[in-house]
Write a structure and sequence with these properties.
The structure is a single chain. By secondary structure, the chain is α+β, with helices and mostly antiparallel strands. Strands 1-2-3-4-5 form a 5-stranded antiparallel β-sheet, covered by helices on one side. A hairpin with a 2-residue loop joins strand 3 and strand 4. The chain is elongated. About 8% of the residues have low confidence.
């Protein structure tokens, strides 16, 4: 039978544990991205062109006509009003969070749905990253996150 003993100090043991813990955290952040593993892969989803935006929309079970109905730059206010705060709370339920983008200019892509007239998918994109997405009926007056988790009224 072989036995081994290791003589160490509490300081060395604590230092080793800290190094291991730091390595584990670095690996988790590397693989989970800047969102710390938030369940919404869409937050870190990069979209560099129209094809990738359509693929993202299709991944949510929604079919669009292919080209955006409109593309515009929108300045999110630094101090959000009640409507933006409510919209953001609903988007948070889908894994998005607009608050880091308050005061920044984002791109807004609006796509018509293939099967329904006057119903649109809207993607908000900052630096090629989807930061919010919703579906809205302009005639029926409803809006909800693209994943359908909560009606936005």
């Amino acid at each position: 039978m072989i036995t081994a003993s290791v003589k160490t100090t509490k300081t060395k043991l604590l230092g080793t544990i800290c190094v291991i813990l730091a390595a584990v955290i670095a690996i988790i952040l590397f693989f989970c991205g800047e969102n710390g593993g938030n369940a919404a892969e869409s937050i870190s989803r990069r979209v560099t062109n129209n094809e990738e935006r359509i693929e993202y929309i299709a991944s949510k079970g929604v079919k669009t006509a292919g080209e955006p109905f409109s593309v515009e730059e929108v300045l999110l206010p630094e101090e959000p009003d009640e409507i933006l705060l409510q919209y953001n709370e609903t988007q948070k339920n889908s894994g998005f969070d607009l608050s880091p983008y308050y005061g920044k200019t984002v791109k807004k892509y609006v796509y018509p749905l293939l099967e329904e007239t006057e119903t649109f998918v809207t993607l908000y994109v900052f630096e090629e990253k989807i930061i919010a997405a919703d579906i809205a009926s302009h005639t029926e007056g409803w809006q909800r996150p693209i994943d359908g988790k909560e009606n936005m009224g």
